[in-house]
């Protein structure tokens, strides 16, 4: 059973470009969470999605950031018009449908904006 | 606003010693307190977790102590090994979102 798969592992974008980060949850998991980790900081919650639904996006910046989890395919975190401050590690986690069970993290995508 | 405060920021322990990391929280709605271990270039991995109806939980060399009245919890790593060298994060959860501390970088020297 493969774990949470994130790609790419490393992504370099120039200021103003778009970044697309992908997350395939573990088999049988229908809940996906995105977290951002800035250097020497803990992870910060961004968004919680279930298939075709955004449940809570209270941690997402109001502009340029969006997330989706379509019926088919991976969850996508999209950052438009990236700025240097978006440089961070972005982690995806997934959990089974039942509430309160452990969330498993992927290895992250390290975004560098140059 | 940091909902979970973690200390120390870094820790050096000799092999065989005890590593102790502390966390404090304010929100009494938190009902799940996990600890994560993260190696460089990897995602966080759940190490051990506790719920507030228990004051202590032990799994192998890892123990969580939980003080509900003080709103504090700590991780003890007994007989620390060089392979334990990693960054450790405490977290607190109410609902589905984990609130992480800033992390403790642990180095266990041979």
Write the layout of secondary structure elements.
The complex is a heterodimer of chains A (114) and B (110).
Chain A: E1 5-7, E2 10-13, E3 19-24, E4 31-37, E5 43-50, E6 53-56, E7 65-68, E8 75-79, E9 88-95, E10 104-105, E11 109-113
Parallel strand pairs in A: 2-11
Antiparallel strand pairs in A: 1-3, 3-8, 4-5, 4-9, 5-6, 7-8, 9-10, 9-11
Chain B: E1 4-7, E2 10-14, E3 19-25, E4 33-38, E5 45-50, E6 56-59, E7 62-67, E8 72-77, E9 86-94, E10 97-100, E11 104-109
Parallel strand pairs in B: 2-11
Antiparallel strand pairs in B: 1-3, 3-8, 4-5, 4-9, 6-7, 7-8, 9-10, 9-11
Main features:
heterodimer, A: about 110 residues, mainly beta, 11 strands, B: about 110 residues, 5-stranded antiparallel beta sheet, about 0% helix, globular
What is the beta-strand fraction of chain A?
A: over 45%
Helix content of chain B: under 10%
**Quick one: biggest sheet of chain A?**
7 strands, mixed
Order of helices and strands of chain A: EEEEEEEEEEE
The quaternary organization reads as heterodimer
Q: Count every beta strand of chain A, where a strand is a DSSP E run of 2 or more residues.
A: 11
Describe it for me?
With 114 residues, chain A is mostly beta strands. Chain A has strands at 5-7, 10-13, 19-24, 31-37, 43-50, 53-56, 65-68, 75-79, 88-95, 104-105, 109-113. In chain A, the strands form two sheets. In chain A, strands 2, 4, 5, 6, 9, 10 and 11 form a seven-stranded mixed beta sheet that branches. Chain A has a four-stranded antiparallel beta sheet with strand order 1-3-8-7, with no helix packed on it. In chain A, 34% of the residues are buried. Chain B has strands at 4-7, 10-14, 19-25, 33-38, 45-50, 56-59, 62-67, 72-77, 86-94, 97-100, 104-109. Chain B is mostly beta strands and 110 residues long. The model of chain B has no long low-confidence stretch (mean pLDDT 94). The interface between A and B is medium-sized, with 25 and 22 residues.
